[in-house]
Amino acid sequence: MGGFLGFCYRQLTYRPHPLPTSASLKGQTALITGANSGLGLEAARELAAHKLSRLILAVRDASKGEAAKKSILATSPECAVEVWSLDHESYDSIAEFGKRVAALDRIDYALLNAGVKKLEYSASSSTGHELNVQVNHIGTSAVSLAVLPVLRNTARKVNSPTRLTIVSSEGHFWIPFKEQSAPDILKRMDDKETFGTAMQRYYTSKLLNVLWARELASKVSPEEVVINTVNPGFCYSGLHRHESTGIIKIFLWMLGWSSVQGGHCLTDALVQHRDSHGEYFSEQRQVPPSSFVLSPQGQNAQKKIWQETIALLKE
Ligand SMILES: NC(=O)c1ccc[n+]([C@@H]2O[C@H](COP(=O)([O-])OP(=O)(O)OC[C@H]3O[C@@H](n4cnc5c(N)ncnc54)[C@H](OP(=O)(O)O)[C@@H]3O)[C@@H](O)[C@H]2O)c1
User: Fold this and answer.
1) How far apart are the first and last CA of the chain?
2) Residue ranges of domains in the chain
3) Are the C-beta atoms of residues 111 and 270 closer than 8 Å to each other?
4) Any idea which UniProt keywords this protein has (predicted)?
5) Among 113, 72, 137, which Cα is nearest to 231's?
6) CA separation for the pair 68, 75 (Å, rounded)
7) Per-residue pLDDT for 48 more than 90?
């Protein structure tokens, strides 16, 4: 069942489950962005509890990162937890982060989860791009390129594919993506007039996550890095902090999963499902992404977004 009714039905009837107790991540390293709160923090906690050896929490606020580290160590004291600075709004921060990543001896799991949901137009004060697009798409895409070489090298060393999961949303089904025919899609989305209503731009940024992950996957062998995207479900978290009406609170009360349950969806896509290269997960199952993504127009948009994003990052 698709659409809004399907969404409500699945939120009400499905209960995300944790990784199997037998899953051991001993000797392995994971890196999670936006790991100081919400789903990223819960995913981090779950991986650490499965004997993960090294965990890198990539956060934009060091004090929040240290608090997250403390809370993870309280239950998983054996895990070597590190807090690294990363701000998706700053190319300097991303470049600095990329340098540190390049020096790592291994990354087995990279979970690109950092995100915002801004319901009113604002442009990033550092890059000038619309904020949802900057943080959710441009920042995430840049970080995916930074972690990829280390994921590849690790796969060669350990003779087994490593994993990259990008956190998207079911909302990617729910937008018309009007900007797709613009000569420069990313530039067009910087125009305030195109922002649309309420969550449209946030959903578009989550569509960009799916398009980017699919194009990236098409360029990488699944024998090296398995790349997928995941919808974590509709969950209680700080993501909804900019909502000014009570409607979202009512929906959360009626349908919302906990951050822990959302975290289970992320760890499931990241650790399980080795044959999921280029695929999309929802309710811990591999399902098709939106029909737009699979359409010829979607495939054109995928290539265009890739080229524009690469050109922008090269700048
Ligand atoms: N919760 C849901 O219902 C839901 C549904 C679908 C998809 N998602 C996706 O799930 C992911 C996690 O969200 P959440 O629900 O856990 O929300 P959250 O609690 O607000 O967590 C978002 C994380 O992203 C970080 N972040 C925000 N802006 C950043 C920036 N400029 N640079 C680096 N990090 C930044 C936040 O850091 P600060 O704490 O410093 O702000 C926080 O750690 C997001 O990608 C979101 O789109 C969530």
Assistant:
1) 43
2) 3-314
3) yes
4) Oxidoreductase
5) 113
6) 12
7) yes
Q: How far is the CA of 33 from the centre of ligand 1 (A)?
A: 9
Q: What is the largest distance, in Å, between two alpha-carbon atoms of the chain?
A: 52
Q: Which atom of ligand 1 is nearest to the CA of 35?
A: 43
| Helix then strand then coil, % of the chain, to nearest 5 | 50, 15, 35
pLDDT (tens digit, 9 = 90+) per residue, 264-315?
Answer: 999 999 999 999 999 999 999 999 999 999 999 999 999 999 999 999 999 8
In three state form, how does the secondary structure of 48-109 look? Answer: HHCCCCEEEEEECCHHHHHHHHHHHHHHCCCCEEEEEECCCCCHHHHHHHHHHHHCCCCCCE
- CB atoms under 10 Å from CB of 13, counted, come to 8
Yes or no: domain 3-314 corresponds to CATH 3.40.50.360: no
Atom of ligand 1 nearest to the CA of 206: 47
In the structure, what pLDDT confidence band is assigned to residue 196 with cuts at 50, 70 and 90? confident
The structure tokens listed for 182 are 């613009």
Task: Enumerate residues lining ligand 1, CB below 6 A.
Answer: 34, 36-40, 60-61, 64, 86-89, 113-116, 135, 139, 167, 169, 232, 234-235, 237-239, 262
Residue 84, burial from CB neighbour count under 10 angstroms (0-12, 13-18, 19+): middle
Structure confidence by residue, pLDDT tens digits, 96-127:
999 999 999 999 999 999 999 999 999 999 99
